[in-house]
Specification:
Structural class: alpha/beta
Pfam families: KH_dom-like, MMR_HSR1
Organism: Streptomyces litchfieldiae
Bound molecules: guanosine-5'-diphosphate
Keywords: GTP-binding, Nucleotide-binding, Repeat, Ribosome biogenesis
Protein name: GTPase Der
Radius of gyration: 23 Å
Helix content: 25-40%
Function: GTPase that plays an essential role in the late steps of ribosome biogenesis.
Number of helices: 15
Length: 455
Amino acid sequence: AAEEGFDAEEVDSELAAAASGPLPVLAVVGRPNVGKSTLVNRILGRREAVVEDRPGVTRDRVTYEAEWAGRRFKVVDTGGWEQDVLGIQASVAAQAEFAIEAADAVVLVVDATVGATDTDDAVVKLLRRAGKPVVLCANKVDGPSMEAEAAYLWSLGLGEPHPVSALHGRGTGDMLDAVLEVLPDAPRETFGATVGGPRRIALIGRPNVGKSSLLNKVAGEERVVVDEKAGTTRDPVDELIDLGGKTWRFVDTAGIRRRVHLQDGADYYASLRTAAALEKAEAAVVLIDISEPISVQDTRIITMAVDAGRALVIAYNKWDVMDDERRFYLEREIEQELVQVQWAPRVNISARTGRHMEKLVPAIETALASWESRVPTGKLNGFLGQLVASHPHPVRGGKQPRILFGTQAGTCPPRFVLFASGFLEAGYRRFIERRLREEFGFEGTPIQVSVRVRE
Ligand code: GDP
Ligand code: GDP
């Protein structure tokens, strides 16, 4: 009766979608201008990943959720960045590194009108070594007369080239079918696989905030085990570090330790690194350097962690140089720039002096506990019922949309599905989210609320 207006199948499919947990990751790689962004737009079915012609522009987002033939996955658009500043080889190598590290399957896009170049060959070598499934997309095959060109790409040794026109949509469906055949249902490193094992932490933040200093401090006298997977030349390495009586896996620490600060193209490289680390981690510790104003880069990294659905702790580093004036401004910056993550536990630390290091682990544990938490359906609906009674949705066009019932469809992070009798306005949705947090806590975890409206 509570499900009035929804048929059981509809409810089931909605819950299955929300409960699907971590999604497998598809990386789209290839040389500049072969049509990667156009293809990603096509896969997403909307113009979100805008084709960006300006060199030197770093996009805020690299990861998008997509769906094909009823299956959901993440698409990572590695395209459209500044080949001029970084150099084509380096930029393609960075993409390949990401694909190797964080993707579960790869689409290599080649421009069929150009044919295979040395760069394409180089990337094929890297991909082959990684052993990830690769689907070869022969792009810019805008018509049947071009298909012969696509056939030349058999020479890359990746099997059948799929002739596609990302621009016009030709062949993309067949190619995506081929992708789904090789894409695993769940990410390579599923969270379930680590039950009882060390929790995975991504230590992220813009260059010079103190990541390597913090890593050295926490690794310091403690046991450090470098976990290098045999037979790979990969650079990202996880370290197992004992902290607060437990062992933690800090993912992708090699890049932190190496401390290469690329001058040009550093943003691009750093974005890919951060995205890769987030894909592998359960919780993110974002470091902010308090000696400088909070920057767009800081908020972008926090947004990436939230979008990735990871547990989040914000560590304000270099507290040893804090003074009254800076403190005044910092608190205002936090109020202005970081309101949307007020729920994240905050620790004020100094990697240099070791100040408040002992607060890091409890903060991470709090965040992870929230990330995994589940609100029983009865309790949730009791709360929703009271909320709807005391704060009904405003009447619109003579109608009053009502929340009929809700359920938590998944965890890691908590995902809720609300079933409503009509469209719920954005303001009302935000209100519900805010009240959910007030009621159930969720300190340190993003939550997702989706609304299903009865047709
Ligand atoms: P990226 O650098 O690999 O992300 O490439 P873009 O997606 O930015 O595309 C580069 C250029 O190729 C743009 O001008 C696109 O419009 C064009 N392009 C992309 N796909 C196709 C296609 O299937 N056919 C044709 N003719 N042009 C395409
Ligand atoms: P990363 O690029 O994020 O790995 O940052 P690093 O660990 O290389 O640190 C960048 C600079 O900040 C170095 O000069 C560090 O000595 C300095 N630094 C790191 N942590 C602290 C801190 O807690 N206090 C102060 N005063 N300096 C720090």
